[in-house]
Amino acid sequence: MDDRINFTGPDIKSKAxxxxxxxxxxxxxxxxHLNLLKNAKGMCDKLIVGVTVDELVLYKGKHAMIPYSDRxxxxxxxxxxxxxxxxYDMDKLTxxxxxxxxxxxxxxxxxxxxxxxxxxxxxxxxxxxxxxxPYTKGISSTKITEALxxxxxxxxxxxxxxxxxxxxxx
Length: 170
Known about the structure:
Elements (H helix, E strand, L loop, with lengths): L18 E6 L6 H11 L4 E7 L1 H6 L8 H9 L6 E5 L4 H8 L3 E5 L6 H12 L3 E5 L7 H12 L18
């Protein structure tokens, strides 16, 4: 009897890379953002993050305090993020298809809404799963912005009063 082991390598079947996608403004980056990115990366092989461009933030009726290029660089520098792309519009389904993402990660504040129930159906038809993560309690960019407004005496919530020159670092 031959006691030698005939090793030809493990039986590795080809496993498709799981690509995940999430988007956000990522203004005033905080621990909640980091938690979402960390949890998302734990569920995929490659995490692509869409950072909302300044023009889309304004369209949504808000104003980013940090310009897009800086926000994108901050997100790009996080070890859980494999790639950053600009988010020019709200069409997450087209973005997922274009990027080859099979999972979309979002905050659970959208869970159960009529809009997102419809999205779940549309995404499922394309083989894309939506994963909802809980928001980190006690922190949000909105809360940070409100605290800054109070501390600095800012009184306007009107995004039209903000210009590109009103970013914090300009």
